[in-house]
Amino acid sequence: MTEETTTRTPRAPGEGRSRPLAVERYTRDRQPAWDEFVRASKNGTFLFLRDYMDYHADRFTDHSLLVHDDAHRLIALLPAHQEGDALVSHGGLTFGGFVAGDGMKIGLMLGVFDAALGYLHSRGVRRVLYKAIPHIYHRVPAEEDRYALLAAGGRWIRSSPVAVVPRDQRLPYQERRQRGVKKAQAQGLAIARSRDFEGFWDVLSARLDKSYLARPVHTAAEIQLLSGRFPEHIKLFACHRDAAMVAGVVVYESARVARAQYIASTDAGRAVGAVDLLLDHLLADVYRAKPYFDLGTSEVDAGVVNRGLMDQKEGFGARTVSQDHFALDLTDWRPGTVLKATT
Questions:
Q1: Whole-prediction pTM value?
Q2: Could you tell me if 19 and 116 lie in one domain?
Q3: I need a labelling partner for 242 at 20 to 30 A (CA). Which of 110, 174, 265, 302 fits?
Q4: Do 254 and 136 lie in a common domain?
Q5: What would the pLDDT profile of 154-183 be if each residue is shown by its tens digit?
């Protein structure tokens, strides 16, 4: 049994009537349809597949949405969870907004928002926190959601600066990074893909604790589980000196972007420039054909950037792409609010 609601979308030129959209809350039996849509979408990644999203289902009250047209064709998905009277898209993911197919256009997205917000308001949701998908992950342009969100009265609340290296216009390495690579090359370090996630987690956990009094978002058991489910998307590349792992990078690989999800080294690895060598290997060899290499954010807290860490990433030719966060108050929501943004 699913919850569903209906609204009306704006009329396209030549149409004699508006078309109803139906919104339904995700249930486990909808996984095949959900996953199929994500794989064919213009802006989805493997992070939105249910076998990834649901690994931490015990921590989040899932309230993901599916939106259908009048022929019951799936036209949009929203990965989300609920916290009290707030819907978050999605707190357990790096980013996540509406996932859409090639047929999504601005008028239809306005209708999607109007239907989804009406559904949420009728079920007691009074706030929406929305993390838009950065454009580098889009197969074709897919920012209709930003326009619709602002048309609905949403407001920008902050940006996370993401350090990104583009394939086609790469900048030269900073001299310090060049020296680090040459220093490491002289040490005879070995680099290879590894399955020793547990060994790397020891390195990573020690580094995060020492530098930030923090710990990884995933446990070693969780990353092993996820890499087993997605071996072509989640990969560990490790740098060894003799038999000892001195550095590693966990890469989340999608169609257009390779993202360094975790980067860490031991004290011995830092001394010989192991991370510099490892990142150079990934940029120049393994992922040289990827349109973008995402080195992640460098925030120690929301809105607070670690400039030293960002400088290290910029030293490899990375520059900033904005990952935008929005908030929308639904307290006084009225149906048709978003549709006023089109004629």
A1: 0.91
A2: yes
A3: 174
A4: no
A5: 999 999 999 999 999 999 999 999 999 999
